[in-house]
Amino acid sequence: MSNVKTQVKKVIFNSIDQNKTGFITQTQLSDYVKQIFQDNHKEKAMKNILNQMDIDTPDVQINFDQFFQFMYILENADMDKLSSIYFYLTDTDYSGKISRKELRDILLKMKTPMEWAETLSESQMNAKADEDDQMTYSDFVDFFEQLIENAEEEEENENDE
């Protein structure tokens, strides 16, 4: 992410953080999103993103790094697709691609068993990685949607037993 974009986000964060604690609340962030975007769709998306980031309680303290990640997701993700939100949530280095470590980390965050997460991330990266050993957006979306479909099938099979 460019230094200019980082500085702009820092100015925005500091304007929201009026008491200069280095943290903002979800309520303050919500007020900012409503003011800037004036769009209920973005507000619903904001709640979804905060939920996925595990910072979805009104009194949670959000630091600048979390704010930066939140804005990256809000500005780039297709809010109608959970797979898109997860791509940008996973892309913690803001490169526009997913590394092996990022993929493993998100699988663990999704409460995927460690052994399965390691195996799955390795097999997916070996199959889908580009020449830089990174997964592209479209490959990640395909992978994520397959992952969700498999999880839903497993849940149905468990319910049938």
Automatic annotation (TrEMBL):
GO molecular function: calcium ion binding
Segment forming the signal sequence: none
Ranges for domain EF-hand: 4-39, 91-113
Name under which the protein is recorded: EF hand domain-containing protein
